[in-house]
Amino acid sequence: MGIAESLAARRFFVTGGTGFLGTALIERILRTIPDAEVTALVRPGRRNDPNDRVARDIVRNDCFARLRAELGENFDAEVGRRLHAVAGDVSTDGLGLDEAGRAALASCDVVIHSAATVSFDAPLDHAVEVNLLGPSRVAAAVAEARASGGGPSHLIAVSTAYVSGMHQGETGEKLLSEDRFSLAVDWKAEVASSRRLRDDTEDASRHPDRLREFMKRAHTEQGASGTHLLAARAEKFREEWVKRQLIDAGSARAQALGWPDAYAFTKALGERALVAQHGPASTAPVPLSIVRPSIIESALAEPRPGWIRGFRMAEPIIISYARGLLKEFPGVAEGVIDVIPVDLVVAAILAVAAHGPADAEPSVYHVASGVRNPLAYGQLVTLAQDWFGRHPLYDERGQPISVPEWSFPGRGRVQRQLRQATRLMATAERALTMVPMRRKQAEWAAKLEEQQTLASRALGYVELYGAYTETEARYRIDHLLALWDTLDEHDRATYCFDPAVIDWDHYVAEVHFPSVVERGRVRTSPVRQSGPDRATRMRSAVLSADRHLAVFDLEHTLIASNVVDSYAWLASRHLDADRRVTFVADLLGAAPGWLALDRRDRGDFLRSFYRRYEGASAEQVKRDAWELFHQFLLPRSFPAGLARVRHHRRLGHRTLLITGALDLVVAPFAPLFDDVVCARLSERDDGTFTGRLAELPPIGEARALLLDRYATEHGLSLDQSVAYADSSSDLAMLEAVGYPVAVNPDARLSAMARRRGWLVEHWKRASGGSDRFLPIGSLATKSLVADSDPGGSR
Fold first, then answer.
1. DSSP letters of 198-211?
2. Separation of alpha carbons 131 and 121, rounded Å
3. CB under 8 Å to 282, separation ≥6 — which residues?
4. Measured between alpha carbons, how far is 576 from 571 in angstroms, rounded to an integer?
5. Model-level pTM?
């Protein structure tokens, strides 16, 4: 009896159905096995019905395009009849099943457990809960269903060939307890240890010294962006630190015991726990088969050549190499890369399901190519050099990228080079963000950060996958081939899983590489894509008639000036030559302190700085402010910025200016806006300024609160609003709206805007304005400050 006939009308229970292998498995069952039904276990969402998630994450995937074409208008009804979902989680005891979920499991004939955290750098505790304990939890649920009088007759656990470790030579298809090279690690002790480690690491992350370190990093990255945002970023750093510690602990523990990473380590212990608790020696044995694929990659033929979901192990390396970012990768040219197409793995699982479980010990099947039909690492590199030489990717200037020659270096050398480069770029990036740069110059820091990210990513690839390109382990497939020998010609054609059928030159060059490039969203031609570029599309969205509000900062957003410039121009205008020298010296001497205070707290800086106006004639300053506008601010304005304000008004958007500048400085700009929020100095009865602020404009995250109130009062939606600002201190305001725009951003904001994918505008100053370093006002006749302060030094 063939595979389809043996499995016809059977009910399957599948975990991991939303993953790469699980999606392909469900599609093949529904397409090739008559009347078979599938119940998929999916993690519960807060609002989504499990069947909605199956429809979104499984059925809508292009994996189902072939079945959709074959069934035509009957597709939805047929799939709806045969594919069901229950909410559950393999990281939870009892799988988190409710009564209906347990009943669904009990009604099934075959359980295929393919759920796993497949990341090679997963935190140890998470890998333990999913990969180590997950199979046992599934088996326990199966045993409970069988004890109640029904339940599945066969559990197929999908593991990995790498549970046997990375030792040299060939490894047979046997349980780990029978493998003399596999250490008999106490899996229960590892579970307890990982849980203690999680608690201990969480406690360590809350030590005062470490919390201060996280807060310092948040200040360095975001400057004076506001208490709440800094606290949120510091907490993010704390969570990342905990995760990094658990990742490092998993890698160190795995390598100390002979496994390449936490993935293979926890999968190996998961097998041991599964067999110990539910194998033949247990009180309630579960009929069990274990399938161990090697590195699963894109489909050879089913459902279509090259089908893949997400990026697997090789894809990031291939794309990085083709883009010229990864110039060398460790490995042995004569070594074997054990790759197996996903459709061969699916076919093997279904053949195992049709064959049924063994009567005695659980049966083990490797699905691997390294012994039967090896792909040499050197062959893969040659194919990559040739293919990308003929089909190059293109850089942002439309130039073809020449792929480098592969030198097959040792892993240690590559790691040292990348670590050194990463450290140097990190140091340079930190130094640049401390310099008050704007406009295009700030892009240097952002681009340096991008290069640092690329180097860190390359280092991550080397550390994660280097062991797999240097391994000399080989995985025998004797049991798999014995199963292959039982198939007739029809099943061999329909459910092919013999690795000997793979023509590596054809598969890699004609199937896999084109699929990787297609999914990689990389430029494959020198011609720019037709239609507007990303920045133009974003600008069109910003200027859509659907927007409600446009809010602007003033200084360095609409004008190339700041509160210090305005003060210096106003104060120096009434000083003679000798007093100007003293004034300038005082100004330059105080500048570093002002800069440091501004970085720490913008509000404190404004309160402190505006005290320098104490004793000045309010009437005189207000008159001079109009001269300041005409002679200094207008020539230093950004015409594109002022035009943008008018554009928003033409579109019917409400416009709002929020600035730390004084009302007397802002007055000439006020007609451009519906509302203005700015600073205002209090006055004495004698008409002089007190130097104290009667109104301090909102600073940092207070601007976000003001926007929230403003939008509510005027019936506006912030999600449909736009904000323009230049500094990381305006981060809260930018994050409060649906359409943030970074204008001539400083180094910090430039980097953040790049990471968040925000629109960045570089507006040029009006032509013809003065480029003087010091903003000294033209000579007038009356002094701005009182005689007691002739230099304006307060």
1. HHHHHHHHTSHHHH
2. 13
3. 276
4. 11
5. 0.77
Report which secondary-structure segment, H or E, holds 613. Answer: none
Q: State the DSSP string of 583-608.
A: HHHHHHHHHHHHHHHHHH-HHHHHHH
User: Do the Cβ atoms of 698 and 677 come closer than 8 Å?
Assistant: yes
Q: Cα separation of 348 and 484, whole Å?
A: 9
3-state secondary structure of 259: coil
Q: In what order do the strands lie in the sheet with 288-293?
A: 83-87, 37-42, 11-15, 110-113, 154-158, 288-293, 363-367
User: Which pLDDT tens digit goes with each residue over 281-339?
Assistant: 777 788 999 999 998 999 999 999 999 987 666 677 777 778 776 666 666 777 788 99
Rounded Cα distance, 575 and 581, in Å? 9
Do 628 and 566 meet the contact criterion of CB atoms below 8 Å apart?
yes
The dihedral sign for the CA sequence 460, 463, 464, 466: positive
Bridge partner residues of 113 (DSSP): 15, 157
The three-state secondary structure class of 551 is: strand
pLDDT mean values, one per 10 residues, the chain (794 residues):
93 93 96 95 79 85 94 93 93 91 92 88 91 94 85 91 82 83 84 95 96 90 78 93 94 88 93 88 84 94 91 71 71 82 97 88 93 90 88 82 74 63 62 55 59 63 65 89 95 96 95 87 70 83 95 94 89 80 81 76 84 92 91 92 96 95 94 94 93 86 91 95 91 93 87 87 80 62 42 37
Contacts of 772 (CB under 8 A, 6+ apart): none
Residue entry with tokens 């670590």: 419
User: CA–CA distance from 502 to each of 194, 383, 449 (Å)?
Assistant: 41, 15, 42
Rounded Cα gap, residues 332 and 470, in angstroms: 6
pLDDT tens for 699-755 read 888 899 999 999 999 999 999 999 999 988 888 899 999 999 999 988 778 878 888
Amino acid at 716: L
Q: Indicate the residue type of 23.
A: T
CA dihedral 274, 278, 282, 285 (to 10 degrees): -150
Q: What is the largest CA-CA distance in the chain?
A: 108
Cα separation, 35 vs 8, whole angstroms: 6
Contacts of range 129-132, beta carbons closer than 8 Å, 24 or more positions apart: 129/91, 130/90, 130/91, 130/266, 131/263, 131/266, 131/267, 131/270, 132/187, 132/190, 132/191, 132/266, 132/267, 132/269, 132/270, 132/273
Q: With the C-alpha atoms ordered 453, 457, 458, 459, is the resulting torsion angle positive or negative? A: positive
Structure tokens at 458: 């390359």
Q: Which of 745, 721, 747, 746 minimizes the C-alpha distance to 733?
A: 721
Interior angle at CA 437, CA 432 and CA 438, nearest 5: 135
Interior/surface letters 333-342, b for 16+ CB within 10 angstroms, e for the rest:
eebbbbbbbb
Beta strands in 329-388 (DSSP E): 339-341, 363-367
What's the residue count for the chain?
A: 794
- Which of 659, 740, 651, 645 shows the shortest CA–CA distance to 697? 659
At which residue do the structure tokens 């970012």 appear? 325
Measured between alpha carbons, how far is 345 from 368 in angstroms, rounded to an integer? 9
3-state secondary structure of 178: helix
